[in-house]
Design a protein that fits this description.
There is one protein chain. The chain has 17 helices and 17 strands. With 462 residues, the chain is α/β, with parallel strands linked by helices. It folds into 4 domains: 100 residues, Rossmann fold (3-Layer(aba) Sandwich); 59 residues, Helicase, Ruva Protein, domain 3 (Orthogonal Bundle); 114 residues, 3-Layer(aba) Sandwich (Cobalt-precorrin-4 Transmethylase, domain 1), CATH 3.40.1010; 122 residues, Tetrapyrrole methylase, C-terminal domain (Methyltransferase, Cobalt-precorrin-4 Transmethylase, Domain 2, 2-Layer Sandwich), CATH 3.30.950.10. It has a 5-stranded parallel sheet with strand order 3-2-1-4-5, with helices on both faces. A hairpin with a 2-residue loop joins strand 6 and strand 7. Helix 7 runs antiparallel to helix 8 and helix 11 crosses helix 12. It binds S-adenosylmethionine. S-adenosylmethionine binds next to helix 13 and strand 17.
Length: 462
C-alpha cells in the first residue's frame, strides 16, 4: 500500500489552491463540502471561482503566487498551466512539510484525493494509487448503485443514539452486538423507509429489552472451501465479518483469512512450524471456552466441515457444554478439484456413482472396503492420499481394477498454483514424483479422468 488512507479533520484546516481555473474550481468545490478554509491565489479566475468569492465561500487573492502564500497552510493544491511554477511550489511546500498535490501530476503529489461515495456522515473513499482510474470509476458506479442514498439517514440515526448506547453497554463487544442487531433488523428498515419516529420508538424499546443481556457467545463452524476466496458462501463471509475470534487450520488460505473482521483475534490450530498439531480435544475445549466467555467464535475449516473435517466432533463437545452453534457448509475439495481440473465426478458414459474415501496411511496400510472402492463405472476420490498413493494403486489393482484405469492427482485445487497430473494406476507414482506434487493433494480414480483433455478450462493448471 503506497498511499495510506486517512480522514483529516477540516475544522481548522487552512488550504491553499494555486490557480483559479476550472480544475481549481473543482478542488475548491470539493473542499467546500467540508469546514476547511479555502484560499485561492491566481492573477485571474474563472466564473465559478469569482462567484464563490463573491458569496464569501472562498478567499480569492488576485495576483501571482508568492512563496509566503504557503504560510499557515496545511494542504496545498497546485493547478496552474505553468509546469515550472508547479514544480517550484511543490518543492517549497515539501520543504515546509506541507502536504501538496500538483493536480494530474502524480510524481509531484505528497497526497492524492480518493474517489468518493458520499453518504455523509458515511464517506467511502477509494483509490487505485493512480494506476487504474477506469476500474476505480467502474467500482464507484457499482457502489453508488448498491448503497442506498438513505444510508445517510442511518448514519445520522447512529450518531443520535451513539452516546445512549455507549452509556447502556459497558463493553465494546456488547455495543457491537447491539448495533449489528439494529443495523440488521427492523429498526434500520424503518430508518431507511423514512419512519424516523417509529425507528426511535423501537430503538428505545430495544435498549430496554437488552437490559438483561446474557453475554453468551456462539460458535460458527464454517467451511472455507478449497482455497479460492471466490468460492466462499455469502453466509460464511457474513459470519467471518462478525467474528470476535477465528480458530483456523492449515488448509485455510491467506486470502480467505484476510476477509475475516480485521479486529478479530486469530488462533492457528493447524500444523505449526514445529509440525505439532493442537490435539483435537484441546480444540474442542478451546471453542467451548471462547464461546462461554461471550465471544462469537468462527471455527474456520478448509473445504466442508462435515467432510473429513472432524466438524462433528467439535460440535458434539459444544452440545455437551450447552454452547449454541451454527454450521455453514463449504465447497469440499472433491468438488473444487474436480471442477477446476475439468473432471466431472459423474458422467452418463463413465460413472454412475461417486465415493469419497480417506487415503490416510496408518502403519503403512489403509483400512478401507477395497472391493467396494474397486468398482467399474464409479469415481473414487481419495482425500489425504498423497503419501498412501502406492498402497491405493496396489489395492485397487488387487481388487480388480485394470492397471490402465485413469487416475488424477490435483495439488492446491482452485488456487493459482494448482497442478494436475494424470496417468493410470501403474504409471501415476512416477509421474507424481516427476511433477513434485505437494500436499494438499486430492486423488480422483475412474474413467471420468479422461474427460479432462476436452474439459480443462482453468488455465493456471499444469
Ligand atoms: C483433513 S482433509 C479436509 C477436507 C476438507 N474438510 C474438505 O471438505 O475438503 C484434508 C485433505 O483434503 C484435501 N484437500 C483440501 N483442500 C485441497 C485443495 N485445495 N487441493 C487439493 N486437495 C485438497 C487433501 O486431500 C487434504 O489432504
Amino acid at each position: 500500500m503506497q498511499y495510506f488512507p486517512i480522514f483529516v479533520d477540516t475544522k481548522e484546516l487552512h488550504c491553499l489552491i494555486v490557480g483559479a481555473g476550472e480544475v481549481a474550481a473543482r478542488k475548491a468545490e470539493l473542499l467546500l463540502k467540508t469546514s476547511a478554509t479555502v484560499t485561492l491565489v491566481a492573477p485571474w479566475a474563472c466564473d465559478t471561482i469569482l462567484r464563490l468569492a463573491a458569496e464569501e465561500k472562498v478567499i480569492l487573492v488576485t495576483r501571482d503566487y508568492q512563496p509566503n502564500d504557503l504560510q499557515a497552510k496545511r494542504l496545498v493544491f497546485v493547478a496552474t498551466n505553468d509546469s515550472l511554477l508547479n514544480a517550484q511550489i511543490h518543492q517549497q511546500a515539501k520543504a515546509l512539510n506541507i502536504l501538496v498535490n500538483v493536480v494530474d501530476n502524480t510524481p509531484l503529489c505528497e497526497f492524492i484525493t480518493p474517489s468518493i461515495v458520499d453518504r455523509s456522515p458515511i464517506i467511502i473513499a477509494m483509490s487505485s494509487g493512480g494506476v487504474a482510474p477506469v476500474l476505480l470509476r467502474y467500482l464507484r458506479q457499482k457502489l453508488e448503485s448498491v448503497i442506498p442514498q438513505k444510508v445517510s439517514l442511518l448514519g445520522q440515526f447512529s450518531e443520535k443514539f451513539r452516546e445512549t448506547v455507549k452509556a447502556r453497554f459497558n463493553s465494546v463487544t456488547k455495543r457491537r452486538y447491539f448495533w449489528e442487531d439494529v443495523l440488521d433488523g427492523d429498526v434500520a428498515e424503518q430508518v431507511l423507509q423514512g419512519n424516523q419516529s417509529k425507528a426511535e420508538q423501537m430503538m428505545h424499546h430495544k435498549l430496554a429489552l437488552d437490559e438483561h443481556d446474557s453475554g453468551k457467545g456462539e460458535v460458527y463452524l464454517v467451511g472455507a472451501g478449497p482455497g479460492d476466496p471466490d468460492l466462499l458462501t455469502f453466509r460464511a463471509l457474513r459470519l467471518m465479518q462478525k467474528a470476535d475470534v477465528v480458530v483456523y487450520d492449515r488448509l485455510v488460505s491467506k486470502e480467505i483469512l484476510e476477509l475475516v473482521r480485521r479486529d478479530a483475534e486469530k488462533i492457528y490450530v493447524g500444523k505449526a512450524r514445529s509440525l505439532h498439531t493442537v490435539p483435537q480435544d484441546e480444540i474442542n475445549q478451546l471453542l467451548a471456552d471462547l464461546a462461554l466467555a461471550g465471544n462469537r467464535v468462527v471455527r474456520l475449516k478448509g473445504g466442508d466441515p462435515f467432510i473429513f473435517g472432524r466438524g462433528g466432533e467439535e460440535i458434539e463437545t459444544l452440545v455437551e457444554k450447552g454452547v449454541s452453534f451454527q454450521v455453514v457448509p463449504g465447497i469440499t475439495a472433491a468438488s473444487g478439484a474436480a471442477s477446476y481440473a475439468g473432471i466431472p465426478l459423474t458422467h452418463r458414459d463413465h460413472a454412475k456413482s461417486v465415493v469419497f474415501a480417506t487415503g490416510h496411511l496408518r502403519d503403512n496400510s489403509i483400512d478401507l472396503n477395497w472391493p467396494m472402492l474397486a468398482q467399474p463405472e464409479q469415481t473414487t476420490v481419495f482425500y489425504m492420499g498423497l503419501t498412501g498413493l502406492p498402497v491405493i494403486c496396489q489395492k485397487l489393482i488387487e481388487h480388480g481394477l485394470p492397471q490402465t484405469t485413469e487416475i488424477a492427482l490435483i495439488q492446491s485445487a482452485t488456487l493459482p498454483n494448482q497442478k494436475v497430473v494424470t496417468g493410470n494406476l501403474s504409471n501415476i507414482q512416477q509421474k507424481v514424483a516427476e511433477a513434485g506434487i505437494q500436499p494438499p493433494a486430492l486423488i480422483i480414480v475412474g474413467s471420468v479422468v479422461s474427460l479432462r483433455d476436452k474439459l480443462n478450462w482453468f488455465k493456471q493448471s499444469a
